[in-house]
UniProtKB/TrEMBL annotation:
Domain XdhC Rossmann, chain residue ranges per copy: 236-381
Cited InterPro entries: MoCofactor_Util/Proc (IPR052698), XdhC_CoxI (IPR003777), XdhC_Rossmann_dom (IPR027051)
Domain XdhC- CoxI: 49-115
The species this protein was found in: Natrialba taiwanensis DSM 12281
Protein name according to UniProt: Xanthine and Co dehydrogenase maturation factor
Amino acid sequence: MTDGLDTDAESAVGRQPSKYIRLRDNTMNQTDPWSATDRDLRDALRSLRDANDAAAVVTVVDVDGSAYRRPCAKFVAPADQTALGAVTAGCLDGPVADLAAEARKSGTATVATFDLTGDEWGLGLGCNGVVDLLVEPLDDSLDPLLAALDDGEAAAVCSVVESDDDAVPVGARTVVTEADSEDGNDRVSVPADILADLQSTADAVRDAGSSTTVRIKREAGDLRVFIDGIEPVPRLVLFGSQNDVRPIARFGAQAGFHVTVASPRGARADDEQFPNAHRVRAAHPTDLPALIEDPERTYVVLLSHNLVDDRLALKALLDETDVPYVGLMGPRKRFEELWAASRDDGRAFTSSELDRVSTPVGLDLGDGSPTGIAMSVVSEVLAAANGADGGRLSERAGPIHDRPDLTR
């Protein structure tokens, strides 16, 4: 993706753009920059803030009609590195990069509107939507958000995107965490009276990981505030050590999960065996609960290919954690044997527990190859994480994406 370097004076003084943003843990982002995940974008923001590097952030804040990306989608554009993320299908890369470059220079936030319902840009777009983008310099106003995510907490970023009040400019911001409301020093804050009016909506959006726009009418001037609910990245724990773990780990990481491989065989518990995992641990089946740091956002797939190990792991997960999803590799007959063995040991699964178990794991893609199986497994986990059923979009009535119902 174009990053606007040719329009940026600060990048022309002897500095060459690096191919990838260097992440906080000194590894390199090896994904396609355009298809960067939320995890990649957050790592980039942390790295840029730690280095105090100039960058711009572009966020979709409103869509009227249809568009490739929905509100919350982001694009991070550093001054001297390749940009990450996408706010359109690629058709507006140039204009968006120019806006990002201007935000880095001016240090001010703006909202740009792109009407994609016709052919204004001469590209035959036909997206049938009007998209509003908040374009802003990266500064300390996002530090409270990054701190909350580091602590495993969700947050709601409240940003003014339209204002008739000169004292509250576009870009004014306050971050609402689970414990408090926090501001940076580089921005005007959302006024306390407005924040009080927004509090219940911000809490709901934060807890749902969704977004909405709220219009505030006041004597000093009307405002429109975009509330962006941002959750920690979901986690995928894979219990197994055979070759089929590797493609699942790879697709899981590419889909944006933080991936842990828990190997029941100690000799296979090293990073080189599973290069796409974020961490690899040797784990007895009953040790799995100790690896679950964020139960509400953790999804587990059991694929040890050992009936006893899988049974012990499933019992431990259901007894000791509240993870919402446990996928179990293998045919139904295998699970029936596992269930019968557990019942014989005096541990019968309740209906509510069985609702958390998916076996055979995966969506029906009709492909039995290792790659097809891995895609099937990760597709179902991703659907579970997003509260979706994994059905065909062509069979869904109404819009493809849910529309938030909190705007007022």
